[in-house]
Amino acid sequence: MSLIFRRLCRQDLFRRLEPMRFVDSRTLKTSQDKIIKNRSTLYYFTGIGVLLVGCSYAAVPLYRIFCQAYSYGGTTSTHSDQNLENVQKVADRKIKIRFNADIGSSMRWNFRPQQTEIIVSPGETALAFYTARNSTNDAVTGISTYNVIPFEAGQYFNKIQCFCFEEQMLNPHEEVDMPVFFYIDPDFAQDPKLEFCDEIVLSYTFFEAKEGLKLPMPSFIGNSRK
């Protein structure tokens, strides 16, 4: 009788503990799922953050490749001096090239063109200079963009050498001269949209190079494609 009683008590205790074990296992699984979900969310947003930082650092080279490939926003094409051998000068067409210089709102340089304008013919090479001076007591690093007006002339404005899209560091009170070696493609003279164009403005803007700097895209890109 005593043995039977002990067996009944043991079975009853087992039945009481079994639901408790089931509840604890389910609760543990739910907690593990939450941990995995939170960890996945953390990885997701960390990945987005890394991507955004990468895009910020890539903004300058991507802007340069995009604009130079399609001559958007009046941006010019870049050529080596090896292409000059086959360039024919159009002597009876004269174009006035005007030079402009600007700086970003936080830039602490003095930046100006050394010449206000020059006269060239399509197919004729020309050399111009800009001067930048750091008037502060701190070293300042700058980076520049360029533009051409009218926008349609950008595809014919070929720069052989320039200082755009490259970081330039000036020490306190340092001054440098920066060359621009270029020519206007002879096809400029055959473009009906530029038949009455006798003046082109080449403009450079220097910005202070900072972490995550995104150089501004021209607001008239849509117009340049029409």
Q: What's the short story on this structure?
A:
Helices cover 32% and strands 30% of the residues. It is built from two helices and ten strands. InterPro entries: CtaG/Cox11_dom_sf, Cyt_c_oxidase_assmbl_CtaG.
Describe the 3D structure:
Interacts with CNNM4/ACDP4. Interacts with RANBP2. It is a single-pass membrane protein. InterPro entries: CtaG/Cox11_dom_sf (IPR023471), Cyt_c_oxidase_assmbl_CtaG (IPR007533). This is Cytochrome c oxidase assembly protein COX11, mitochondrial. There is one protein chain. With 226 residues, the chain is of the alpha+beta class. The protein has a domain at 71-224: Ctag/Cox11 (Ctag/Cox11 (Pfam 04442), Sandwich), CATH 2.60.370. The chain contains 2 helices and 10 strands; from the N terminus they run H-E-E-E-E-E-E-E-E-E-E-H. It has helices at 2-70, 221-224, and strands spanning 77-78, 95-103, 109-113, 117-120, 125-134, 140-149, 157-161, 168-170, 175-184, 199-208. It is extended, with a radius of gyration of 33 Å. The model is unreliable at 19-23, 50-76 and 218-226 (pLDDT under 50).
List the helices and strands and how they pair.
Elements: H1 2-70, E1 77-78, E2 95-103, E3 109-113, E4 117-120, E5 125-134, E6 140-149, E7 157-161, E8 168-170, E9 175-184, E10 199-208, H2 221-224
